Amino acid sequence: MKRTVFRNRWLPYALVAPQVAITVVFFYWPAIDSLRLSLYRASPFGDRLIFVGLRNFERLFGDGAYLRSAFTSFVFAFFVTFVGLALALFLASLANAKIRGLTVYRSLLLWPYGIAPAVAGIIWLFIFHPTAGLLPYVLSFVTTYQFNWFLKGWVALALIIVAAIWKQFGYNLAFYLAGLQAIPASVLEAASVDGAGPVRRFLAISFPLLSPVTFFLFTLNMTFAFFDTFGIVHAVTQGGPGDATSLLVYKAWKDGFEGLQLGLSAAQSVILMALVITLTAFQFRYAEKKVTY
Amino acid sequence: MISITRWRVVAAVVLVACAVSLPAPVFAKTDLQWWHALQLVLGERVNEIAAKFNASQNDYEVKAIFKGSYPETLNAAIAAYRAKQAPHIVQVYEVGTQTMLSSGAVYPVFQLMKDNNVAIDWNDIIPPVKTYYSTGGNLSSMAFNSSTPILYYNKDLFKKAGLPDKPPATWDEVEAMAKKIVAAGGKCGASAAWPSWTLVENMHTWHDQPFADHNNGFDGLATTLKINGNLGVKSMEMLARGVKEGWFTYNGRLNKAEANMGAGECGIFLSSSAFMGNLARQAEGKFTWGTGFLPRLAGFPQGNSTIGGATLWVMKGAKPEEYRGVAQFFKYLASTENQAWWATVTGYLPLTNAAVKAMEASGAYEKNPNLKTAVNQMNAGKTTANSQGIRLGNYPSIRDAIEEQIENILSGKKTAKQGLDDAVAKGSDILKEFAALYK
């Protein structure tokens, strides 16, 4: 690698300064500020700031609702990531086959990613609305079971899981499709000659060769499920019924922005921050070693 | 070379900074920022008010700016205040009242008017509104859009079920009528929007039962909810039974349930009196509807319904001449002409007795008797220590805790008593946090 030497010793600093400034102002500053705020009982207008040590964290971990919210978030992230990736991989394999109308088929599969989360939420609301929606109407011909997710928690949770998978689907698919196309045809042909069927070829060749893509998508989907699903929850369920869909990120927003309990909300974002740091560190420390690039 | 460029950059930055901080050129009119949270038709009405006031004089220009939902508007104002860029006037919903009162960031309205020698007949403001937003008999914020929950009923569904064209007066009647509506093929016998507000908060004030200690927070910061008493348990048990038996339908938080009423699905419905404008539009050509008082539960005394909506708060930190403009603007808002117009076009309560009389005189009530229901209901009610209103710190979080438990009760996950006990425990914990802040 060629080493670049700057003649002026300030120039390199000047060149990285904007990036550093952005990182400091938009990432480190807010992060440190929430860390500080999480130790206080703070009034909305900032006129009262009482140091309370770890009381906010104590309140959170002593609160059944918060623990349930954490559990719900893990269930949610698990399903969104695993089911989402499995589905994307399956359909990518199909879309990789040589069939007629392939470009149309592929474009249609990629479509959902172009829709804003809040809009996606509204569309889902129209489809699933217990009394006005399309799906409950269709289902009413099949079963008498009431899928009213205004009152049934598991239906509401399933609904936002499906919505989140659908939302992230195009993105996952695009990566898997690109990954599949990068697998050399010669390897697959050699396997065919050796008598491996499509399933065997997939399990022994394609899937292992896709592991870098899977690894990347896994991290990305986990992050998405934990931190980027606010829009869907806000548009569809608002955390309800009860607290069945109150994900950690939604609860942090609600306690902070609607409830104006700033210290408590800051403590929640600190926990989320710790979670994402752990997740990323764990990923790069352990998972990466087992990945074939 | 480099160092010259560097100095140029520094010079440019300094110049830009100077340009930005130069005092703005003096305009003939003083700008007054009014941040609000009303959209669609209501937002247009707000703009109309500002335009009319601006046209009525030459010294001040009120700029009405939509800042998103109520919580979003409040958050925007808080951020702006902390950055010393606060708007002059901000509209805050009723659940933010205690937050504003405790904030130390507001200029009480009665003081503002006194300091600027603008006389408003405060005694003419209708009692429920006045008590709700006053401390020590003095109005802290300018009453603006106030509503109260009332009962709506779908006349077509009533007819179909063979019921007389008369709203139910008691919950027993609601039950009996809703059952008939469902038996006649109706999708939703009875339902309600704003669940905590209509089914818990007003259920308590309307039956003269305490909602929180210290007279619902009017005589000091409340620290305990009282909703797990006899009335709370009884009403929640009734509603849970209603869901089980199919005559009561739960249709979500906030005003989500209004979509069902607007679509003509519900026979009996509780919501804000300000829902009237939208309902009229949605029902047009499809079904007819009427209004009535909130239903009563047998065996409890008469209280009053409490108000919702929002008021206008004046923020500290502006210049005296700007405050003079705000006082003038409020004088315009309080004028009978503006009040009568506002109440007629929105369904919000007319805030002064003079405006009620003006509406009677102009025939607005004769043309649309439903406009009068909310006013009549509040006049028929008795304003007591339990029904003057509810003033709680962190109120939005408390509402949330209550609605969570309403959902658990109605879905049968918890008994009424258990759910309400849990709501009280959580709500009281939140209240104590707030009280600790302002010890």
Would you kindly provide a brief summary of this structure?
The complex is a heterodimer of chains A (293) and B (439). With 293 residues, chain A is an all-alpha fold. Chain A is built from 13 helices and two strands, in the order αββαααααααααααα.
Distance between the termini of chain A: 21 Å
Instruction: Figure out the total of helices of chain A.
Output: 13
Largest sheet of chain A: 2 strands, antiparallel
Give average pLDDT of chain B, whole number. Answer: 89
Radius of gyration of chain A: 24 Å
Approximate shape of chain A: globular
Spatial strand sequence of the major β-sheet of chain B:
2-1-3-11-6
Kindly state the number of beta strands of chain A: 2
Q: What's the shape of chain B?
A: globular
Mean pLDDT over the full residue set of chain A = 85
What's the SSE pattern of chain A? HEEHHHHHHHHHHHH
* Record field, number of beta strands of chain B: 11
| Low-confidence sequence ranges of chain B | none
Derived structural class of chain B: alpha/beta
Question: Which percent bin holds the helix content of chain B?
Answer: 40-55%
Sheet bearing the most strands of chain B, described? 5 strands, mixed
Write the layout of secondary structure elements.
The complex is a heterodimer of chains A (293) and B (439).
Chain A: H1 11-37, E1 40-42, E2 49-51, H2 55-61, H3 64-95, H4 102-110, H5 117-128, H6 134-142, H7 153-181, H8 185-193, H9 198-209, H10 211-227, H11 230-236, H12 248-258, H13 262-285
Antiparallel strand pairs in A: 1-2
Helix pairs in contact in A: 1-13, 2-13, 3-7, 3-10, 5-11, 7-10, 8-9, 10-13, 12-13
Chain B: H1 2-21, E1 30-36, H2 40-56, E2 60-66, H3 70-82, E3 89-93, H4 97-103, H5 109-115, H6 127-133, E4 134-135, E5 138-139, E6 142-147, E7 149-154, H7 155-160, H8 171-183, E8 188-192, H9 195-206, H10 213-217, H11 230-245, H12 258-262, E9 266-272, H13 276-283, E10 289-292, E11 308-314, H14 320-334, H15 336-346, H16 353-362, H17 364-367, H18 370-380, H19 395-410, H20 416-437
Parallel strand pairs in B: 1-2, 1-3, 8-9
Antiparallel strand pairs in B: 3-11, 4-5, 6-11, 7-9, 7-10
